[in-house]
Amino acid sequence: MGMSVTISVATEQDAEQIFRLQYLCFQGEAALYGNYRIAPLVQTLDSVRQELASDCVYVARLGEEVVGSVRGTITEDGAASIGRLCVHPRLQGHGIGARLLRAAESALAGERGATKFRLFTGHRSEGNLRLYRRVGYRTVGTSQGSDGVPMIVLEKPADEFATTA
User: Fold this and answer.
1) How far apart are the first and last CA of the chain?
2) Which of 124, 128, 123 is nearest to 143 (CA)?
3) Is residue 68 within 8 Å of residue 10, measured between CB atoms?
4) CA 119/CA 101 separation, integer angstroms
5) What are residue 84's phi and psi, to 5 degrees?
6) What are the tens digits of pLDDT across the range 52-110?
7) Exposure winner among 1, 54, 120, 137, fewest CB in 10 A?
8) Are 23 and 38 in contact (CB under 8 A)?
9) pLDDT in tens, 95-120
10) Are the C-beta atoms of residues 67 and 5 closer than 8 Å to each other?
């Protein structure tokens, strides 16, 4: 009998697993852009620990193993900025990313008062764009990542969370 993937709030003890998972998962993005200096690959373990202490962070677990994670924080304009969504490559395509997004959206709207959700993804990241659009995000603009990668900005109103959850 197989184990189920569970979604829960990340703890301080998850920092190293999140750090390693993030490094593994974002290799494909780095290759897609020919840029191995993208933010998720150069983030430090201490920085991940700081985010765990201050941000809304959820993990997907298969037993004791962290197999997915997502982070969110409220910005000055009342939006929830959601980022670093990642799922272990061997488990992608099974809805774990969407479940992580829903957990983060629920907490950011319900507990932190987000008025809308915002996320960024690279302009060539078709799999990410498909997922985000499927769960209700719409393109609202473009920006340049600090690493030079052209980004697409997507948003959805927080009140639409209930219709996509």
Assistant:
1) 28
2) 123
3) no
4) 11
5) 55, 35
6) 999 999 999 999 999 999 999 999 888 999 999 999 999 999 999 999 999 999 999 98
7) 1
8) no
9) 999 999 999 999 999 888 899 999 99
10) yes
